Amino acid sequence: MPTPSMEDYLERIYLLMEEKGYARVSDIAEHLGVHPSSVTKMVQKLDREGYLVYEKYRGLMLTNKGQKIGKRLVERHTMLESF
């Protein structure tokens, strides 16, 4: 199971990919209010855990596992906001 911090990243990456079709480290850092180096470390961890595929200088893509969790997090967030 991803940690709460990992979930924040997965949700943001999922949303960026839905909006733009891609997610860059700089975009993630801007939206989460963290340094790009922190994003890179987390993205590498998410890659090792199988939630996404990260290639330096080429970007990242969510795996099926990452997409399912990202979608679930966005849906949960939306549902909580509606209450």
- Compute the CA-based radius of gyration: 12 Å
Instruction: Tell me what portion of residues adopts beta-strand conformation.
Output: 5-15%
Strand order of the largest sheet: 1-2
- Classify the oligomer: single chain
How is the biggest beta sheet arranged? 2 strands, antiparallel
Low-confidence stretches: none
Mean pLDDT: 93
* Bulk shape: globular
Distance between the termini: 26 Å
- The computed structural class is mainly alpha
Order of helices and strands: HHHEEH
Number of helices: 4
Number of strands: 2
Question: Which percent range fits the helix content?
Answer: 55-70%
Topology:
Elements: H1 4-20, H2 25-32, H3 36-48, E1 52-55, E2 59-62, H4 64-82
Task: Describe this protein with a few key phrases.
83 residues; mainly alpha; two-stranded antiparallel sheet; 2 strands
How would you characterize this protein structure?
By secondary structure, this protein is mostly helical. The chain is built from 4 helices and 2 strands. It has helices at 4-20, 25-32, 36-48, 64-82, and strands at 52-55, 59-62. A two-stranded antiparallel sheet has the order 1-2. A hairpin with a 3-residue loop joins strand 1 (52-55) and strand 2. Helix 1 (4-20) crosses helix 2 (25-32), helix 1 packs across helix 4 (64-82) and helix 2 packs across helix 3. The longest helix is centred in the last third of the chain and has 19 residues, at 64-82. The model has no long low-confidence stretch (mean pLDDT 93).
